[in-house]
Design brief:
This protein is of the alpha+beta class and 451 residues long. Helix content is 67%, strand content 7%. The protein has a five-stranded mixed sheet.
Length: 451
C-alpha cells in the first residue's frame, strides 16, 4: 500500500496512456464511445472532478505560490529559506490529498514518490535535501499545470455543457412565445453538437490532468526503474536461494534413498540370504542321510528345491535393490555382470575409470543399463548390444546403450523406460531416446557425477 492509501496497481511508469484513456477518456479510444460521449459516465465523473479539483487545486496553488514568492524574495536575508523549506514540505501532503482525490473520483491510482533524504545529520543537511528534492518541486509545478487544466475544464463545463442545456431549455419552454434566431430543429442540433464537443473537452481535460499527476505527483521514471530493478533483483535472489535449497534437498533425498537401498541389500544378504544358504546345506546333508527312506528323501528333495528357488528369487531381489557387485567392485564390474546375464550378446566399453561418479550416479547408471538390456531381450529382436560408459569433461556420467534391433521403443507412461526417465530426472540428468522403426535403438543418458 502506498502512503496515500492506494493499493494493488502497477507503478506509474507501467500504466500506459491508452490505459488512462480507457479509464477517464473512453471517447478518445473509438468511434462508438465517441458518439456516446454526452451520456458516458466518464463525462459526468469528469464534471464532478472538475468542480472539486478546481477548488482544491486552485486554493492550494494560490497559497503555495504566495508563500514561495515571499520566501524567495526574502531568501537574500536568509529568513526566507526556512519559509521555502516549510512550503515545500507542505506541498507533500497536498500532493497526497490530490492523489487520494484522483483515486476516489477517477479510480486512478498513483503511487507515492520517494523523497530525497539528507546524506548526513543536522538541520542544514535536512533543509538542503528538501530544497534539492525534485519531486517536491514537481508537486509545485503540478499545482500550476493542474490549475490551468482545471480552469479550462471549468470553462468547457460552464460554457459548453451548461450552454447546451440552457439552449435546449430555451427551445422547449419559450420556443412558441418568442422569436427564434434560427429554426428550432437547427437550435436543437446546435445544442447537441455543443454538448458533444463539451463532453469531449471534459474527458480530454481529465486525461490531461491524470497524465500530469502521474508525471508530477507520482514517482519519477528513474526512481521507478531503480525500484523495479531492485524488486527484480530481490526476486532473482529468492529464486536462486530456492533453487539451491531444492537442489540440496533433492540430492539429500536421492542419497538417503540410495543409502537405504544399500542397507536393505546388506540386511538381506547378511541375514535372510545366509540363513537360507545354511538351511539348504543342512537339507542337502539330511537328504543324503535319508537315502534309505524313499519317502523322507522325496520330502527333503522337494524342500531342498524350494530353498534353492527361494534363494535365487532373493538374490534377484537383492540385485534389484542394490547389487552387491556395484558396491564391492564398482560400476565397470557391475555392467560386465549385467552383460554376462543378458541373453543377447553385449559389449561393454569403459575406456576410463568411472570413480569420479558418486554412488547415486553409478546406481542410476546400473539400473538404466539393466532396464535397457531387459527391453532389448524382450522386444528389440537384436543380435548385438553395445554399452559405453564415460566421464564427460563437464563431469557427467554418460551412458550410451545401442542395439541393432527393430527400434520403435517409446517411454510410454508407466513403462520401464518412463521409470528410468524419472530416475534420471531426479538426479538432474538428461534422457535421450532415439529409436526409429527398423533402425535399432540408441539410448543416451547423462547424470552429474556429484548427484
Amino acid at each position: 500500500m502506498s502512503s496515500d492509501g492506494s493499493t494493488g496497481t502497477p507503478l506509474n511508469g507501467c500504466v500506459s496512456e491508452r490505459d488512462d484513456l480507457r479509464l477517464v477518456a473512453p471517447a478518445l479510444t473509438g468511434w462508438r464511445p465517441l458518439l456516446a460521449a454526452p451520456v458516458s459516465g466518464a463525462t459526468w465523473v469528469g464534471i464532478s472532478q472538475t468542480v472539486v479539483g478546481s477548488f482544491l487545486v486552485g486554493f492550494a496553488a494560490i497559497a503555495v505560490f504566495v508563500a514561495l514568492a515571499v520566501g524567495l524574495s526574502l531568501a537574500v536575508l536568509f529568513v526566507g529559506i526556512p519559509m521555502v523549506v516549510v512550503t515545500l514540505l507542505a506541498v507533500r501532503p497536498i500532493a497526497r490529498l490530490e492523489r487520494a482525490r484522483l483515486h476516489a473520483q477517477l479510480r486512478v491510482t498513483i503511487d507515492a514518490p520517494r523523497y530525497k533524504q539528507p546524506r548526513r545529520p543536522g538541520w542544514w543537511a535536512a533543509w538542503m535535501a528538501v530544497l534539492g528534492d525534485s519531486r517536491s518541486w514537481a508537486h509545485v509545478a503540478y499545482l500550476l499545470v493542474g490549475s490551468v487544466i482545471l480552469t479550462a475544464s471549468t470553462v468547457v463545463v460552464s460554457v459548453g455543457l451548461a450552454g447546451a442545456v440552457a439552449l435546449l431549455a430555451f427551445v422547449i419552454f419559450y420556443g412558441d412565445s418568442v422569436t427564434m434566431p434560427a429554426p428550432a430543429p437547427l437550435l436543437v442540433l446546435a445544442a447537441v453538437v455543443v454538448a458533444w464537443v463539451g463532453s469531449l473537452g471534459v474527458q480530454a481535460s481529465s486525461f490531461a490532468l491524470v497524465r500530469a499527476a502521474r508525471s508530477m505527483l507520482g514517482a519519477s521514471a528513474r526512481a521507478e526503474a531503480v525500484e523495479a530493478a531492485r524488486h527484480a533483483q530481490a526476486q532473482l535472489a529468492v529464486a536462486e536461494d530456492r533453487a539451491v535449497h531444492l537442489t540440496e534437498t533433492r540430492t539429500a533425498a536421492v542419497g538417503a534413498a540410495d543409502s537405504e537401498r544399500r542397507r536393505i541389500e546388506r540386511d538381506l544378504h547378511d541375514g535372510a540370504q545366509q540363513r537360507l544358504v545354511a538351511l539348504g546345506v543342512e537339507l542337502g546333508a539330511a537328504r543324503r542321510k535319508a537315502s534309505s527312506d524313499p519317502e523322507a528323501a522325496a520330502v527333503l528333495d522337494h524342500a531342498h528345491r524350494e530353498v534353492k528357488e527361494t534363494l535365487a528369487e532373493l538374490r534377484d531381489l537383492v540385485r534389484g535393490i542394490h547389487p552387491a557387485v556395484l558396491t564391492d567392485r564398482g560400476l565397470d564390474a557391475a555392467l560386465s555382470a549385467l552383460a554376462a546375464r543378458s541373453p543377447v550378446p553385449v559389449t561393454v566399453d569403459v575406456p576410463a575409470p568411472l570413480t569420479p561418479a558418486s554412488t547415486s550416479a553409478q546406481a542410476a547408471a546400473y539400473f538404466v543399463v539393466a532396464e535397457a538390456l531387459t527391453n532389448v531381450a524382450k522386444y528389440a529382436q537384436a543380435s548385438n548390444v553395445t554399452v559405453t560408459a564415460t566421464i564427460t569433461p563437464s563431469q557427467h556420467l554418460r551412458l550410451v546403450i545401442a542395439d541393432d534391433g527393430a527400434g520403435g521403443a517409446a517411454p510410454t507412461s508407466g513403462s520401464g523406460l518412463d521409470g528410468l526417465r524419472s530416475r534420471v530426472a531426479a538426479l538432474d540428468g538428461t534422457f535421450d531416446l532415439d529409436s526409429p522403426a527398423g533402425a535399432g535403438t540408441r539410448l543416451t543418458v547423462e547424470v552429474p557425477c556429484a548427484s
